[in-house]
Amino acid sequence: KAGVTQTPRYLIKTRGQQVTLSCSPISGHRSVSWYQQTPGQGLQFLFEYFSETQRNKGNFPGRFSGRQFSNSRSEMNVSTLELGDSALYLCASSSGQFEQYFGPGTRLTVT
Amino acid sequence: GESVGLHLPTLSVQEGDNSIINCAYSNSASDYFIWYKQESGKGPQFIIDIRSNMDKRQGQRVTVLLNKTVKHLSLQIAATQPGDSAVYFCAEDYGQNFVFGPGTRLSVLP
Question: Are A104 and B96 inside 8 Å of each other by CB?
């Protein structure tokens, strides 16, 4: 079974721009969660989607948004990028049981 | 590879020795816990989980211990190998999402 894939792996953007990251979960998994990982804050939960609906949301500003498609693939969008948004963005998929499987992440650098 | 954490607590162990990585969790109502391993340049990898109705769970070379009285979780790795070098995170099920600990860097010495 193929693992969780994320595209792109690396991205460089300028302050004020917006960015869209993509995540393809493990086949059959309907839950997709997004996390931001930084050296200072560690792993922080952004949001979770299940069957195209946002089920949970972390404590991030509205500039961070996401969606999930009928095939369970998910995208997250960050608008009006700030320097502090530079991070590794991780996607995790789950079958609905607790265990989550992470992708390799997208490294976003904002200059 | 990506830097997971610049100022993580570090545990250095000799190859072949046992490793014990500790984690304090925050919510006494959390009922599910996971240990993850993250190698440089990769996403976190599931190692082992435990539910709050258990005190101990064993996997292949790994054991997780849960002490609910003091809200403490530990991961024991037997016969530590160079491939075990990574950052280890505990995560607690915080009601509707997971909350991750800051991580511990395990360094295996030859």
Answer: no
